């Protein structure tokens, strides 16, 4: 039976790499996939991995009907044996509904990859709808690590290495950005709560301890 599968995890845990691996394995067997993406780090119409792999994809636009796009593609003689949707957290809830309809009405497997929560630990609307509708949810087993060595479970937005907790939900950036730029860092829950990034932890470690001065 075809399925809607949601592969979730933090940033830097290999979601896009797995999407590219699924595409490679299936295309090597003669299957043809339809790849959707939104706001990939490599630019418009690309699905990329931090390992340097990249392939072309359909850039999803606001208000685009993904089910209608597939039907139109197939009716014009195109082929699609499965669907990959990367950066699925950026899709609108109604677009997730359309992907579910692709599974149910067109009989195609849909593999969606995305981050579950944003930099404020709030659910992305697209990810929330995937959790509600997916036949199966797979948490990626390649664990991203916090700077302290614990398993990273939260995504933090940073500017100049300092964690920020205000701003638009969607701001495109990446891990390991240059100082002063909007970037992202994965943290364990404890350090996300304390807003302690690798840079701020390093600064605290380099600061001399203030010792009590005895009264004269």
UniProtKB/TrEMBL annotation:
Entries under Gene3D superfamilies matching the protein: 3.30.60.20, P-loop containing nucleotide triphosphate hydrolases
Annotated catalysed reactions: thymidine + ATP = dTMP + ADP + H(+)
One Pfam family it belongs to: TK
An example molecular function term from Gene Ontology annotations: thymidine kinase activity
Keyword entries, A-Z: ATP-binding, Cytoplasm, DNA synthesis, Kinase, Nucleotide-binding, Transferase
Record localization: Cytoplasm
Binding site for ATP: 9-16, 86-89
Annotated active site: 87
Name under which the protein is recorded: Thymidine kinase
Subcellular location, principal: cytoplasm
InterPro entries the record matches: P-loop_NTPase, Thymidine_kinase
Sections of the chain in a coiled coil: none
Protein family: Belongs to the thymidine kinase family.
PANTHER family: THYMIDINE KINASE (PTHR11441), THYMIDINE KINASE, CYTOSOLIC (PTHR11441:SF0)
EC number(s) per entry: 2.7.1.21
SUPFAM superfamilies xref list: Glucocorticoid receptor-like (DNA-binding domain), P-loop containing nucleoside triphosphate hydrolases
Domain of life of the native organism: Bacteria
Subunit and partners: Homotetramer.
């Amino acid at each position: 039976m075809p399925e809607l599968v949601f592969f979730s995890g933090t940033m830097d845990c290999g979601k896009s790499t797995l999407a590219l691996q699924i595409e490679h394995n299936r295309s090597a067997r003669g299957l043809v996939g339809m790849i959707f993406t939104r706001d990939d780090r490599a630019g418009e119409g690309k699905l990329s991995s931090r390992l340097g792999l990249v392939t072309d994809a359909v850039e999803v636009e606001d208000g685009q009907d993904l089910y209608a796009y597939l039907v139109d593609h197939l009716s014009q003689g195109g082929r699609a044996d499965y669907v990959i949707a990367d950066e699925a957290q950026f899709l609108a809830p109604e677009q997730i509904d359309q992907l579910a309809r692709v599974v149910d009405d067109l009989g195609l497997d849909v593999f969606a990859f995305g981050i579950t929560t944003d930099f404020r630990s709030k659910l992305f609307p697209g990810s929330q709808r995937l959790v509600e509708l997916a036949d199966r949810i797979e948490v990626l087993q390649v664990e991203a690590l916090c700077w302290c060595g614990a398993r990273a479970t939260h995504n933090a937005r940073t500017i100049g290495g300092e964690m920020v907790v205000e701003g638009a939900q969607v701001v495109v950036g990446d891990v390991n950005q240059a100082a002063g730029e909007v970037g992202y860092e994965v943290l364990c829950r404890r350090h996300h709560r304390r807003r302690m990034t690798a840079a701020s932890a390093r600064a605290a470690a380099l600061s001399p301890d203030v010792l009590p001065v005895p009264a004269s």
